[in-house]
Amino acid sequence: MPRAWSLASRPQGMPKHTDFAMVDLESRDLADGEVRVANLWLSVDPYMRGRMNDVKSYVPPFQIGEAMQGGAVGEVVESRSADLPVGTQVLHMLGWRDEAVLPAVQAQKLPDLGVDIQAYLGQLGMPGMTAYFGLLAVAEAKAGDTVFVSAAAGAVGSTVVQVAKAKGMTVIGSAGGADKCAWVQSLGADKVVDYKGGTPVVKALTESAPDGIDVYFDNVGGEHLDAALATARPNARFAICGMIDIYNDGKPTELRYLARLIGNRVRMQGFIVSDYMNRAEEFYRDMGGWLKSGQLQRQETVHEGLDAMPDAFLGLFTGGNTGKMLVRV
Ligand SMILES: NC(=O)c1ccc[n+]([C@@H]2O[C@H](COP(=O)([O-])OP(=O)(O)OC[C@H]3O[C@@H](n4cnc5c(N)ncnc54)[C@H](OP(=O)(O)O)[C@@H]3O)[C@@H](O)[C@H]2O)c1
């Protein structure tokens, strides 16, 4: 019988294992136009934490007791759609489960770019697109710019580092711990800030970028955002991608340097990756090319088996991943 993770209770603060429960899914016959997909890889992403709260957002909240959703790649094992015959590899949003039944129109056939299919949950998928368009379209980063990116050892951040280097920028990445910082540097970052190293981020960033930064790619919020404001050059652009620092406790952020926006004419813009889906072709061309040629390194942290989904998810908030956090079913 297919199984899925559901939300047993809405987490208060950092989620606990008891907030999750495995449920059996009804195994039913396919209707016309539907496919059955054996999920092979499942994604856990920080935005899912927001869906665990009962609040209105750009994605609806998960319902207690119902199978959760998220990115997944797998193979069609039964089909009543001519568009997706048995054996087709697809990406879809019925993750957190081992098997998915869905209309074929809600599954995307994976383009054949000659890379492992789990890459479509990372660099060739939502996080990669976020990095690519956040940096190049939202922040309008260009060759010669100095870019600061937080959570630089994560899925989005490590891609930002590498895209920025491929496009001729100077990059400062921040991550938690010496090992992660060394890895970020191995990706090409010119300087790294270990935000767990005991030095305030603003001091470490000022030392790393004595002439200031042109672009900040924010994955964290809080102290990182404040440090970026303190070091912003005139006409700096901030792409506000995420604020993982406040996802669990929603604590207010103290921004001592906020007023620097004014004198330095800083532009700060939030964005959602789906705004750029209509430009997927451009993304696949560049990112697929860089990945195939080896110019872009791909790193994954893999948890084994559906049972490990909560562990993988919780690990996002304690720095348990280097590169993309994934579960192999
Ligand atoms: N706007 C959009 O459309 C969009 C799309 C995708 C992702 N996002 C956002 O992008 C960010 C990164 O997502 P991702 O999928 O690439 O996750 P990720 O970076 O692979 O994983 C999260 C990382 O965040 C770091 N972290 C956790 N808590 C932190 C804290 N309090 N302070 C500083 N760092 C912390 C951890 O690394 P360390 O070990 O370095 O602490 C952890 O590995 C998230 O904020 C996410 O919500 C936005």
User: Beta-sheet strand percentage?
Assistant: 15-25%
- Alpha-beta content class: alpha/beta
Percentage of residues in helical conformation: 10-25%
The shape, in one word, is: globular
Helices, by number, come to: 9
Uncertain ranges: none
Q: What's the rounded overall pLDDT mean?
A: 96
Main pleated sheet? 7 strands, mixed
- What is the strand tally? 15
How do the SSEs run, as a string of H and E? EEEHEEEEHEHEHEHEHEHEHEHE
C-alpha termini separation: 15 Å
Bound small molecules, by name, code or SMILES, are: NADP nicotinamide-adenine-dinucleotide phosphate
Q: What is the quaternary state of this protein?
A: single chain
Describe this structure as you would to a colleague.
The protein has 329 residues and is an alpha/beta fold. The protein is built from nine helices and 15 strands. Strand 9 (170-175), helix 4 (178-186) and strand 10 form a beta-alpha-beta unit. The structure holds NADP nicotinamide-adenine-dinucleotide phosphate (NAP). NADP nicotinamide-adenine-dinucleotide phosphate binds next to helix 2 and helix 3.
Question: How would the blueprint of this fold be written?
Answer:
Blueprint: E1 3-7, E2 20-24, E3 34-43, H1 48-51, E4 72-79, E5 89-92, E6 99-103, E7 108-109, H2 126-138, E8 146-149, H3 155-166, E9 170-175, H4 178-186, E10 191-194, H5 201-208, E11 213-218, H6 222-231, E12 232-240, H7 260-263, E13 267-270, H8 280-293, E14 300-304, H9 309-315, E15 324-328
Parallel strand pairs: 8-9, 8-11, 9-10, 11-12, 12-13, 14-15
Antiparallel strand pairs: 1-2, 3-4, 3-6, 3-15, 4-5, 5-7
The protein binds NADP nicotinamide-adenine-dinucleotide phosphate.
